[in-house]
Amino acid sequence: MKVTFIITFFFLKIVLVSGQVKGVVKDSLTGQPISYVNIWVENENSATTSEEDGTFSIAVGHDKNLIFSALGYEKKILKANQTAEVFLSSKAFDLEEVIISNSIGTKQITIGLTENTVAQAFDNGPRMDVKYFPNKPDYKKTKYLKKVILYTDSRIEDATVKLRFFKAEANGFPGEEMLQKDLIVSVKTGTKLNKIDLSEFNLSMPKNGLFVGFEKLMIEKNKKEKTVINQNTQTAQVQKIYYPLILYNYVEREALFTFSGGKWHKQESVSNGKTEKVKGYEPAINLILTN
Predict the structure, then answer these.
(1) Phi-psi map region of 125: left, alpha, beta (phi>0 left; psi -120 to 50 alpha)
(2) Which Gene Ontology terms cover its molecular function (predicted)?
(3) Is 220 helix (H, G, I), strand (E, B) or coil?
(4) Which residues, other chains included, contact 134 with Cβ-Cβ below 8 Å and sequence gap of 6+?
(5) Spatial distance between the Cα atoms of 18 and 107, rounded to a whole number of angstroms
(6) Integer CA distances (angstroms), 27 to 130, 163, 179, in order
(7) How far is residue 209's CA from residue 165's CA, in Å, rounded to a whole number?
(8) Which uninterrupted H or E stretch holds 239?
(9) Reduced to 3 states, what is the DSSP secondary structure of residue 56?
(10) Distance from C-alpha of 267 to C-alpha of 84, rounded to nearest angstrom
(11) What is the pLDDT of residue 104?
(12) Of 154, 165, 148, 157, whose CA–CA distance to 121 is shortest?
C-alpha cells in the first residue's frame, strides 16, 4: 500500500495564567515515584505527564481540580493546591476464571486499512484520540492481536509515546483497558512506520471490538521549543511541541471518540433525529491479527 504523508504542525502554546503547580506522584504502599501518570485539568483540554521520577509541573489555577490516572492505580481527583505530594493506591482486580489459549501464528491478516491513504501529522495537544476496530465474523479464525502498526513523525531521536487498548462497551464507548502495564514505545526521528509486537500480552479481539489509541507523553525528553515573534504585538513567544506526532487519516465514521478533561467525548452527526456519519480525523493505526 502506497501512503502519502502531509506534515502539518500546530504548536501547543502554554500560557501561564495562575502560576505553575509542581508536585510528585508516588505509590501509596511503597512510596516509590510513579512515572508517566496522566494528569488532567478537570473538564479542560489541559494536561501533562509525570516524569520518570514522578515529578510534574502544570500551569493551572489553584482552585481547579486535577485528575490523576495511571494503569493499575485508582483514579484520584485533588485540588491543584493540594498536589505537592500525591499518593495513588493500587487498583484491586476481581479475578475471573479464564481459559488460556495461545496463538499459533500460522496465518495473519491486517485490519484497519483506509481508502484515504493520505496521512497528516499534527499536534493534537494533550488529548487522547483512538481508532475503533469492530469485531467481524471474518476474524473468528484470527482473533489474536499480533502487532500494532503506527505511523509517526518526530524531530527528536527516541521520542516516546504510550499506546492504549480499550475494550468497546455495549454502548459503543471505550471501556476497560486490555493491558495491565504501560506499553511505552520509542520511535526514531523522521517519518516512520512502526510495527510493535503484541504477542507477549496474549490479547484477543473482544466481543464488541476494541479501541486503539495513543497518549502523548508531555515530558521534558519529548519537548522541543521554538521562540517566535508575534507579528501583532511584536513580543517573543515560546512555542512548545511534544514528539512524536502521530499521523492521521481523514475518514467518515459512525462516531469518533476523544479523551480530554478526564472523560470520553463522542463526536457524532444527527440530522432530523437520524444519526449520520461524521467526517473527521482518526489516528493512522492498523492491527495485524493472527490465529
Answers:
(1) left
(2) carboxypeptidase activity
(3) helix
(4) 168, 209
(5) 56
(6) 28, 22, 19
(7) 11
(8) strand 236-242
(9) strand
(10) 36
(11) 84
(12) 154
User: Which DSSP symbol is given to 232?
Assistant: T
Neighbours of 30 (CB within 10 A): 9
**Would you say the pTM of this structure is higher than 0.85?**
yes
Which amino acid appears at position 54 of this protein?
G
C-alpha cell at 167: 475494550
Residue labelled with grid coordinates 481547579: 64
Residue with cell 505511523: 151
C-alpha angle 284-290-291 in degrees, rounded to nearest 5? 155
Cell numbers placing 245: 506526532
Residue ranges, the chain, pLDDT below 50: 10-17, 95-96, 98
Q: What CA–CA distance (Å, rounded) separates 52 from 54?
A: 5
DSSP string, 141-154: TS-EEEEEEEEEEE
- Give the C-alpha separation, 144 to 166, whole Å: 15
Q: What is the pLDDT of residues 75-113, one digit of tens each?
A: 999 999 999 999 999 987 554 454 556 788 899 999 999
> Please, are residues 170 and 135 in contact by the beta-carbon 8 Å criterion?
no
Q: At 246, list the grid cell.
A: 502521530
- Asked whether the bond before 244 is cis by omega within 30 degrees of 0, the reply is yes
Contact 14, 130 (CB under 8 A): no
